[in-house]
Design brief:
This protein is mostly helical. The radius of gyration is 21 Å and the shape is globular.
């Protein structure tokens, strides 16, 4: 059943039969290896918690803003579309997209900065490496092993979705030296499926953060007209305001932004494959070039959106006040729990980790509201 499916994939696709897992398991005829990986992510505790973790707005700010889980689902949709177009392993791209933010703390990047500071003498904190801790150590759902025992290709994609790893220092400090037992080649490029998951992340948060920013009145369409590419899209749709609500017009604008960026990725990726003479899967791993990418025009657009969002949204006083509050909450929790860890955490269920790392795992796994409630109890 699986062998028959492989023939449907293109020559650049990661095969549907994995190279293996750290712990050997029997295969099933019901699902391929990467569908099993995806389902393990979806059924994990860490994935469910993303529902109540900050994307930009703290989870208590409103019911209609993105959270980490809605963001991950939107990344997954874009990644599946791109993978399907290129006849790649759609299941692998979906898995990587759903898993890529598992390691995020409460309060988003503010929480990550806080935990990294609290852990400065103990190896630091990084949400991408925390994702690896979750799927290899912290999720406990099976008799035979700790973690989710995901396929080698999924691990490789999560480790290198932003490209080869040149400096292993932080990875070794947080996970331990030779944790992956030489099954991952950190110097090789990532698969197209992993590169697609990465750029889909950019497309999703750029477009949807714009929508959430407009919805929260942090800025309006007039501010966005100053950005090339956006000005044409906005001009096309603002003419519809006579007969349609602003909410509907904004949704159509966001839809066009996504389409514009996805179309650009398709054209640019096809050009890169041709330019760098990529003939097979082995060539993808060996090349030092990022193949799945935006054109230069779209890279400038992407940069302008990110700069705009930083100035008008991420550093806005209303968002920034939540950032400051989130840092205050997590700093207090870390210091308080450190005084008496056993009061809050079942230390005995952890092994091969120092106390500070266990506390860090505990806090990183919290949802926004759990962290706030615990903070209110102990402050």
């Amino acid at each position: 059943m699986q062998k028959k499916s492989i023939g449907k994939l293109g020559k650049f696709a990661v095969p549907l039969i994995s190279r293996g897992r750290f712990f050997k398991e029997k295969r099933t005829n019901l699902r391929n290896d990467f569908q099993r990986d995806r389902d393990r992510i979806i059924h994990s505790t860490a994935f469910r918690r993303l529902k109540h973790k900050t994307q930009v707005f703290v989870n208590t700010s409103g019911d209609h803003f993105r959270t980490r889980i809605t963001h991950s689902l939107e990344v997954s949709q874009i990644a599946r579309t791109l993978s399907k177009f290129f006849n790649l392993n759609e299941d692998l791209s979906e898995t990587l997209s759903l898993a890529h933010d598992l390691g995020h703390t409460p309060f988003g990047h503010a929480g990550e900065e806080t935990l990294n500071y609290c852990m400065r003498d103990y190896g630091g904190f990084d949400h991408n490496i925390q994702t690896l801790r979750i799927i290899t150590i912290l999720e406990n759902r099976y008799y035979e092993f700790k973690g989710l025992n995901l396929s080698i290709e999924t691990l490789d994609g999560l480790i290198k979705h932003n490209g080869p790893i040149k400096d292993l220092t932080k990875l070794n400090q947080i996970l331990g030296k030779d944790f992956f037992e030489k099954k991952i080649n950190f110097t090789l490029n990532s698969s197209l499926e992993a590169q697609i998951a990465s750029i889909s992340d950019d497309i999703a948060y750029n477009s949807h953060d714009l929508e959430d920013g407009l919805k929260s009145n942090l800025f309006d369409l007039n501010h966005l007209k100053k950005i090339p590419v956006l000005n044409k899209i906005i001009f096309k749709h603002t003419k519809k305001l006579k007969n349609h609500s602003i909410d509907l017009v904004v949704r159509q604008i966001i839809r066009d932004i996504i389409n514009e960026m996805v179309s650009d990725v398709i054209v640019t990726t096809k050009e890169n494959i041709k330019l760098y003479k990529i003939k097979n899967l082995s060539d993808i791993y060996k090349t030092k070039k990022k193949l799945v990418n935006f054109s230069r025009r779209m890279q400038k657009f992407d940069k302008k959106i990110k700069t705009f969002l930083k100035q008008k949204m991420y550093f806005h006083k209303d968002v920034n006040s939540n950032t400051i509050y989130g840092k205050k909450v997590l700093t207090k929790l870390f210091l308080q729990i450190k005084k008496n860890p056993k009061k809050y955490i079942n230390i005995n269920k952890y092994s091969n980790s120092n106390t500070e790392r266990i506390i860090c795992d505990y806090i990183a796994g919290m949802t926004d509201r759990y962290a706030i409630n615990l903070y209110n109890q102990i402050k």
